[in-house]
Structures are given as structure tokens and as C-alpha cells.
Amino acid sequence: MSITFENVSHVYGVDTPFEFHALKNVQLNIKNHSFTAIIGQTGSGKSTLIQHINALLLPTQGSIKIDDYLISVTNKPEKLKQLRQKAGLVFQFPEYQLFEETIEKDIMFGPLNFGKTEQEAKEIARSMIKIVGLDESYLDKSPFDLSGGQKRRVAIAGILAMNPDILILDEPTAGLDPQGTKDMMNLFKSIHESGKTIIIVTHDMNHVLEYCDDVIVMNHGEVERHDTVTQIFQDSEYLNQLGIDLPMMTRFILDLNEQGYHIDPSINCIEDLIEAIGGEING
Amino acid sequence: MDHMIEVKNLSFEYDEGLHTIDNISFNIDKGNYVAILGHNGSGKSTIAKLLIGLLEKKSGDIIVNGYELNMENLYKVRESIGIVFQNPDNQFIGATVRDDIAFGLENMCIPHEQMDDLISTYAKKVHMEDFLNHEPTKLSGGQKQRVAIAGILAMSPSIIILDEATSMLDPIGRREINTLVRELKKEKDMTIISITHDIEEAKYADQIILLNKGKIVKTDRAKDILSDIDLLSQLKLDIPFALKITNGLKEKGISIKNTLDNKDLEQQLCQLRSKM
Fold first, then answer.
1. CATH of the domain at A62
2. With an 8 Å Cβ cutoff, is A280 touching chain B?
3. Which phi-psi region, left, alpha or beta, contains residue B192 (left: φ > 0; alpha: ψ -120 to 50)?
4. Rounded CA gap, B226 and B41, in Å?
5. What value, to the nearest 5°, has the Cα angle with vertex A160 and ends A6 and A187?
């Protein structure tokens, strides 16, 4: 399922003193099966953009095409429910959206809503809880007795239970500890490898370097760049001007290269970097 | 008086039998910048809440700024400590930045004439002097946390606790707060306790208290704790970037000194290369 934005604008509070142009003429094509990062400063339109992908927000102008679904000013797709099943959105702090008595019921809610039987939904809950790294014994517990990181896993299991083709994540690791963050990112990586499209809003350039293929840069409501990770991080001056730091590893490689090293700046894992530095020192 | 904070055999439990804080003792010296590290659920935030008397200890002693923390001294202790919480949206009271900074001062019955001076002094200190009439809700996360810090500084506490104060901020906000904390540290009088996951930030602390399952695993100079790869990996904490590199190169038989500082690592690597 590729996602195409045709000239999309979104205005909040039209004809009020608070009128705000959150998206301006967005042209965009997000490739099927890509792992795409959306970056940009707070207030640049990142969250507004992703909420259009499952029609939580409708464009003020222009249209969005996802597979056979067309979302436009006048055309709220009749099959909105199916679209939302295909494009699952995980908000920032999804743990605030848990509401059921037990974790099992919370995960079953989506599948039941999309027409699965009680039995099917239960089976889905059982397999999803394992995918997010918890075991079946959690199913009978209350989601409110869990730690922050565990709650977030349950909330994500609830979205995965709908088996979406596109998973949209709004800063999914904010506030997690380093191990929780690593586990969470590896979870998305394995979901991506199972053939899904992942779209992630993030401020963490180290994650973008390590996990993503493509980057969309938002600035003042416009898509300013849409390119591969390697291309984007080559342009440090441009990022600097947006107040975005290079990933620590890329910065380090560029600094070394300035002093005579010849290391490939697109390296994205520490083992490769150590290998490259060792290679140059040992000749 | 040597220690700004003394904690002796402190224990606390939310549920009976489950020791959230298990018999810990530590001291923090006046003017020190101390980072408390440990992963989620290790008891870091509980310690902060015990220190300001938001939670009641089960046993042990807490002495802050010379006052033993008990019902009688509670307000003396709270006058000594200011705390900044994780979520910038959960700690605003005032309708404007000015009102918000004024809140604590009003509580302390500071005369109105002095208040204006104090507000502008501390707004300047956190670089928010141009925003005094702004609504807090319209500020960015980093700006909100800076206003929260100004409100605390205005009450001139001896200790400031940052409870994951940067973890919900974007990189710009995070940098703003980290820079401000280092500025405060330079002024020496302030004792700073930072509860954090950010190992690259903890490098700047004087001392680190490493916490796991409610117990202190180790407390030492930041440099020594952050150089202990085995300990950090055992506790599933991040390892500083520069140290990962020096460690990997050593395994390849390259002789290089351990370092936490990327610039220092770069220099060493350039020397190694020029020897070739």
C-alpha cells in the first residue's frame, strides 16, 4: 500500500482569529514497505501529517490516496473503517489510551470492532502479547498495574491486533529508559521485516540512522525534503539550520574525515565503525 | 556542615513487603552535581519524592540542609529543595509566565516591591525575560521547563532536583535545559540532583549514584562509573559512545586510552593514524 498526498493543505480554525495553516500543499509519496522517519521541529506539522493517513483529519484542500481509498475535502471514504484497520496509528503516550479491565480485553477491542469473533479475538490477543515481548500470564492482569514501558507494549499490541499494513508511530520511545527504547525499536524493526510499512515521527536522529530507510523533513507545514537517510545526513548544514543535530556516529565520522580519515559516512552501526577505524589504523 | 543531604538506611515500600527503596545510604555535598542513574522502576523518582517529603519513609533518616526530615521540619526542608518534574504541562499554575514565577514568592509572603525584581532577575537567568507576559500553554516544552526552573530559583533553594526533566523534550529543549544546568553548576552554591537516563548528559555530573531494584549498586565519580562497561551492561544501561569505540579497538589489538569524551577520542585516533 503506497501512500500518496496530492497537494494537501490543512487549516485549523478556518475563519477564526486562530486560523492556522498546519499543512501547506503537501506532495508526497511514501513507498510500500518503507521504514520512513518524519522529522522536524515541534510545531512543524508532523502530527497533523500522520493523522491524515488514517483520515482522523480530513484535508482542507487536496487529496490522499492509499491503495483504493481516496480521502479528500468532499470525499470522506465510505469504507473509513477498513482504512483505519489498514493504517494503524499509535499516538504519543499510547498508554493513556488503555481502558479495559484486563489486558486481554484491551487487545481484543480492535479485532472485535472489525468483525472478528470472540474466539478469534482471544487468539489474536494471545499471539500479540508475545509479539510485543510479554507472556500470556499478563492477559488476565489489569493494564493499569503495569510499568510505563509495559503499558506501552500493551497499547501497541492493541494496534497490531488489527493487523494493519501500515503502522504509524508518533514518538513511540519518548520517556522510555534506554533498554525499553532499544526493545521497542527492535520490535518495530521486526514488524517492518515481516512486510509492513512503518512511518515514525521522531526527534532521535540516532534512531533514524540505525533503523530507517527514508526521511521526510517537515518545516513550517511543508515537506521540505524527502530523501534517503544517507542523503539527508550528508547535508549537515541544512539540518543545522533547522536545529537538528546529526546522529552522534555521523558527526563523529565527519570530524574524523576532516582530519584525514576516509570512513564511509553512511555507516550506521558501531561494529562497522570500529572495523573501519581499525582498518585504517592497522593499514 | 559538610553534607547538603544525608540519607541513612532509608527504606520505603508502596506495597507491604515490596521494598521499592531498600536500606540505602548516601551523602551529597554542597555544590555538587549528582546524577541518579538506573532504569525504569529502579526507585529513582521515589528517592526524589522521599527527599521532599511527598512520600513518607518506612524507616531510616533523611537530613537536608541540616534539618532532619520529619513533620516538624517538613516546610524547612521544602524551602531548601525545588523540584522539576518530567512533564512540562503538569506543573503550571499561573496564567502568565510572570504569575507562574510569582506563585512561589507569594507563598513565601515576599513583599510585592521585591517580587518584581526577583521575577525579572530569574527570568533573565533562564533566558525567558522576553516572555513574562506570555501564556505558559503557548510555550515550547523547553521554555516551559525553563520557566519552572525560574520559579524554583526565585525561592532560592539550596538544592534543585530535576526528575527526568528533559525526557519529554525535543533535542532543542533538551539542550536548553542541559546548558542551563551547567550554568547553574558553575555558580557553585547550588546543589543539583539530576534523575536521568541520558548517559551523555550524566558525564557532566561530579558524582553518580547507580540504582537497581531499590538498592545502590555503586556511588562514585561520574568518570569511574561511566567507564565500567561490565557494570553498565549488567544493569542494561547505555554505554557512552566513545567508550564503545575504544573498547572495540582494544579488542583489535590497538592501544588506546579509555575515554568518555568524543573530542578526546578523535585526538587519540588522529595521533594513531599519523604514526602509521
1. 3.40.50.300
2. yes
3. beta
4. 20
5. 100
Domain with A210, as residue range(s), is 3-246
- End-to-end CA distance of chain A, in Å? 47
Per residue in A175-217, pLDDT tens?
Answer: 788 888 898 999 999 999 999 999 999 999 999 999 999 999 9
Contacts of A46 in chain B (CB under 8 A): none
Assigned domain for A269 exists: no
How far, CA to CA in Å, does A179 sit from each of A173, A193, A194, B38?
Answer: 10, 21, 23, 11
Query: Residue B73: is its pLDDT beyond 90?
Result: yes
Instruction: Answer whether residue A279 is part of any domain.
Output: no
Which of B252, B255, B272, B276 is most worth mutating to test chain A (most A CB atoms within 10 A of its CB)? B252
Q: Does A224 participate in catalysis according to the annotation?
A: no
Catalytic residue among A171, A210, A271, A275: A171
Q: How many domains would you assign to chain A? A: 1
Q: What is the ipTM of this complex?
A: 0.81
Answer yes or no: is pLDDT of B196 > 70.
yes
Distance of residue A180 Cα from the nearest chain B Cα, in angstroms: 8
Q: Is residue A271 part of a domain?
A: no
Taking the CB of residue B49, how many other CB atoms lie within 10 A of it?
A: 15
CA B264 vs CA A253, A279, B274: distances in Å = 14, 20, 16
Cα–Cα distance measured from residue A124 to residue A117, given in angstroms and rounded to the nearest whole number? 10
What pLDDT does A201 receive?
A: 95
Please state the φ and ψ torsions of residue B242, each to the nearest 5 degrees.
-60, -35
**What domains, with CATH codes, occur in chain B?**
3-224 (3.40.50.300), 240-276 (no CATH)
pLDDT, tens only, A50-98? 999 988 999 999 999 998 888 888 877 677 788 888 999 998 878 888 8
pTM: 0.86
Residue A38 lies in a domain: yes
For residues B45 and B52, is the Cβ–Cβ distance under 8 A?
no
